TrEMBL record, chains A, B:
Named cofactor requirement(s): Mg(2+); Mn(2+)
GO biological process assignments: DNA repair
Species of origin: Kribbella voronezhensis
The keyword Manganese is assigned to this record: yes
Name this protein carries in UniProt: Exodeoxyribonuclease-3
Important for catalytic activity (site feature) positions: D228
Homology family: Belongs to the DNA repair enzymes AP/ExoA family.
Cofactor annotation comment: Probably binds two magnesium or manganese ions per subunit.
Length: 267, 267
DNA sequence: CTTGGTAGG
DNA sequence: CCTATCAAG
C-alpha cells in the first residue's frame, strides 16, 4: 500500500507556522510532493525533520529567491533525482522535480512534483511560457512512460479541466487557468491513457476543489478551483483505491491557499 | 490643565493592530505627538478617527515611502503648521513638524514633534546628517523662543543624555546615541534654559527608559535607553506638574518598541 | 526582531 | 489577501 500526498504549501515556513505539521503527522504519507516551497534546501529540510529522503528543485535563476520551488519527500530511498522537464529554457526554474523510487514489488516509480506557470499576468506575458511548459511536460511524460515503469505526476497545474472543476466557470471562460487550449491539453493527456485520480474518485462534481483565493469569502463560499492533480500512468492508476482532497474544516484551520490531494495505491 | 503625550509609534498601523487605541482612550491627552508614523496622511487620519486636528510631516523625498513621518494630533485647533526645521537639506524629510495652538490663557504654544536621524549606520554615513539636524534644531528653537511664546519640543532624539539614561552605558560610550558630542548638544540645550521634563520628574535614575530593542530580552531585562523627550521652554516647564513614561506591563502588551512620555502642564 | 514597500501569485 | 525578500531601525 502506497499513500501519496501532494500539496502546494505556498511557503513551507508559513505552512508550518499555521499547522502543516499536525496534518502531516495525521496523514502520514509514504511520499509527500510539494509545490511553492519558497525556501532554501536547508530551510526545507529543517522544517520536514529527519526520516525523509528529499528531492528538491530550488529555483536558481536570477531574482527567483523565495519563489516557486518543488520537492518530493519520500520515506523510501530516492534512486535518482532529476530536475527540470527538459528544455534549456526551463533550466533552474524550480517547477519540476522527479524522483525514482523502488516499490515493494520491485518496480520503479517515477514520482514527479510540478508547479506549472500561472498564465494570468500581462506584463511580462506569461501565457506563452505556460504553453511551452505544458509541451515540455508532454514530451517528458512520453519519454518516462516508454520503458513501462510507473509514473505519477503530482502538482499544481494551474488548469481546471472541466466546468465541474471550478465554481465560477462561466466567469472564467476567458481567464488563464480555464482557457480552451489549456483544457484541451488535459483532454489529450487523459485520452492518451493518463488518469486523473481526483476526478476518478471525486464523483461527478461540481467540485471538489483544491484551491481557493485567500481574498474575500472565496473559501467560505467554496468558490474554488480544482487545479491540483495526481495523474497516474494506466497500470498505476488501476491500482488506486482512493483519492481525496483534504479541505480544511474552517478558514482559520487552513495552512495554505491550496488543499492536499491524497491518494492510495495498492501496489 | 494640558496633558501632552509623545510616542514613537513605529508604524501607526502596527501600533493600532497591537492595541494603541486602548492606551490612547485611557490616557486621553489633549495633544498627541507621534514619530515614525510610517503611513500616508490618509492612513494616519483613518487610524486616529475624528475629533482631532492633525499636523503631519509625511516624508516626500524619493524612496522614503513608509519611513519616518512625524505628526501632531490636537483636540484644539491648529493655527499654523510648519514642516521641516529650516535648512533646505531637510526639506520633506518627515522628521519635524510644528503646530501653533492657542492655549486657554490666550498664549500661543508651539508644539513640535521631531524624529532625529539614527546615526548608527555606516553606509551611507549618517552621523554627519544627525549633527546637521541637531544644528538645525538649535537654530529653529532659538528663533521660536524669541517672541516669548511657549515652546514644547517632543520626540525621539536618538540620544541618551547621561549615564543614568541607558542601562548599558559602558558598552555604548562609542556608539551613536551616546557619543560625547551628542550628549554635549543636550547639555548646551539644557544650559540655555530648556527643561528635560522626563528627568525632572523621573528621579535620579538609572532609568526610567523609553526605548528597548525588540531583539532578545532587552525589554524583560529593562535594558533600555531614554531617548524620547518632552523639552519645554522655561515658563512652560515651570507649569509642569508631572511627566511619566508609560512602560508596558509585559512584552506582549507593547505596541511599539518605544513607550509614550506623558506630561501635564497647569497652563 | 520588527517595520513597511514591493513583486509575485 | 497572502507569500517572501529587502532596506531600515
Amino acid at each position: 500500500m502506497l499513500k501519496v500526498a501532494t500539496v502546494n504549501v505556498n511557503g513551507i515556513r508559513a505552512a508550518y507556522r499555521r499547522g502543516m505539521a499536525a496534518w502531516l503527522e495525521q496523514t502520514d504519507p509514504e511520499i509527500l510532493l510539494m509545490q511553492e516551497v519558497r525556501a532554501t534546501d536547508e530551510v526545507l529540510r529543517d522544517h520536514l525533520g529527519g526520516d525523509w529522503h528529499i528531492a528538491h528543485a530550488e529555483p536558481v535563476i536570477e531574482g527567483s529567491k523565495g519563489r516557486a520551488g518543488v520537492a518530493i519527500a519520500s520515506r523510501r530511498p530516492i534512486k535518482l533525482e532529476t530536475v527540470d522537464p527538459g528544455p534549456e529554457r526551463f533550466a533552474g526554474c524550480g517547477r519540476w522535480v522527479e524522483a525514482e523510487i523502488v516499490l515493494d514489488d520491485g518496480n520503479t516509480l517515477s514520482a514527479i512534483s510540478t508547479y506549472v506557470f500561472t498564465g494570468e499576468f500581462e506584463t511580462p506575458p506569461r501565457q506563452a511560457e505556460k504553453y511551452a511548459f505544458l509541451d515540455a511536460i508532454t514530451n517528458r511524460l512520453t519519454a518516462l512512460r516508454a520503458d513501462g515503469r510507473h509514473v505519477l505526476m503530482c502538482g499544481d497545474l494551474n488548469i481546471a479541466h472541466r466546468e465541474v472543476d471550478l465554481k465560477a466557470w462561466k466567469a472564467n471562460r476567458k481567464k488563464s487557468g480555464f482557457l480552451p487550449e489549456e483544457r484541451a491539453w488535459l483532454d489529450s493527456l487523459f485520452e492518451s491513457g493518463w488518469v486523473d485520480l481526483g476526478r476518478r474518485f471525486g464523483g461527478e462534481g461540481p467540485g471538489p476543489y483544491s484551491w481557493w483565493s485567500w481574498r474575500g469569502k472565496a473559501f467560505d463560499n467554496d468558490a474554488g478551483w480544482r487545479i491540483d492533480y495526481q495523474i497516474a500512468s494506466p497500470q498505476l492508476a488501476a491500482s488506486a483505491t482512493d483519492c481525496v482532497i483534504h479541505r480544511a474544516p474552517t478558514y482559520a484551520e487552513r495552512w495554505s491557499d491550496h488543499a492536499p490531494v491524497v491518494a492510495t495505491y495498492e501496489i
